[in-house]
Amino acid sequence: MPFSTHDPVPSDRLRTPRRICIVGASGKLGQYMVQLALDRGFEVVGVCREGSVGKLARFGGRLTIVPGATNDADVIRRAVAGCDAVLTVLVPWGIGQYASGTAQAVLDAAPPDARLVFSCGWHITRDGKDVYSPIFLALLKVFGWVARVTRFAQLDDQVEACRRIFASDRAWTVVRGSDLEEGESQGLPVWSRHVGDAVLKSNRTRRIDFALFMVEALTDPRLIHEAPAIVGCQTASALAIAAEPMRSTA
Ligand SMILES: NC(=O)c1ccc[n+]([C@@H]2O[C@H](COP(=O)([O-])OP(=O)(O)OC[C@H]3O[C@@H](n4cnc5c(N)ncnc54)[C@H](OP(=O)(O)O)[C@@H]3O)[C@@H](O)[C@H]2O)c1
């Protein structure tokens, strides 16, 4: 069953954050999230590796930067102090349990009531009910093998990171991105609980809209303890489902 976050949200369950932390702020997704958060008037703290601080120069003094490794508990503790929400870019890069270390540091250090939103890809499954195409599975296998052999990335560690998040009783959301592309925003992506659902068939989302979904998730209580798989709202599969009579009269 496809979902759209354009549906109304009960206003009494919304809580707009005042100060948020973005872990992995210097990446492409992170920079989009910083911009969107600043546009909304949030106070923003960004965490990125020391060598990447320059990538955030265009934000000037509008952003507080805590340089350091995102899986360093001390760095994360300082960055999330006093934050109402934490947006975390989970990547499997490197071979040092980077993703699981980052997730654990955020789970451990974020203030108790903080809203936690993490990013990952469709390959993460929460309940094992996702249905993947043979091509997707083949590419995943090849990428996973190459990444392991070249010590470029640990896909398994992103799986472990999400396992820990799913097991947590924090107010988490794990946003699972489709294949990404650059370009202007097309609007808030639609989502579904399971890869394989018809609405997701196009497997394409603008990176800026992935960021938009992450930021909007902060104030959407229906996404707490969900692992939405997202797709661009203007893709063929999303439009086809939106045009179905059952949905338009619902
Ligand atoms: N790329 C895709 O097609 C795709 C598809 C589906 C889902 N996703 C998800 O989307 C999110 C963003 O992915 P993205 O590919 O678009 O990347 P991205 O936004 O460019 O972000 C990459 C992040 O990883 C950091 N990073 C890179 N190499 C690292 C290393 N060796 N050790 C530690 N950190 C490192 C970068 O920090 P620096 O700025 O310091 O380099 C940056 O914060 C991820 O959660 C990913 O799982 C991506």
- What is the fold named in CATH at topology level? Rossmann fold
CATH architecture: 3-Layer(aba) Sandwich
Q: What is the count of distinct domains?
A: 1
Biggest sheet layout: 6 strands, parallel
* SS elements, strand count: 11
Describe the structure.
This protein has 250 residues and is α/β, with parallel strands linked by helices. It has a single domain, classed as Rossmann fold (3-Layer(aba) Sandwich). It has eight helices and eleven strands. The chain is globular. It starts with a strand and ends with a helix. The model is unreliable at 5-13 (pLDDT under 50). The protein binds NADP nicotinamide-adenine-dinucleotide phosphate.
How would you summarize the topology of this molecule?
Layout: E1 2-4, E2 19-23, H1 28-39, E3 43-48, E4 63-67, H2 73-80, E5 85-89, H3 98-109, E6 115-121, H4 134-149, H5 155-167, E7 171-177, E8 180-181, E9 190-192, E10 205-206, H6 207-217, E11 229-231, H7 236-242, H8 245-248
Parallel strand pairs: 2-3, 2-5, 3-4, 5-6, 6-7, 8-10
Antiparallel strand pairs: 1-9, 9-11
This protein binds NADP nicotinamide-adenine-dinucleotide phosphate (NAP).
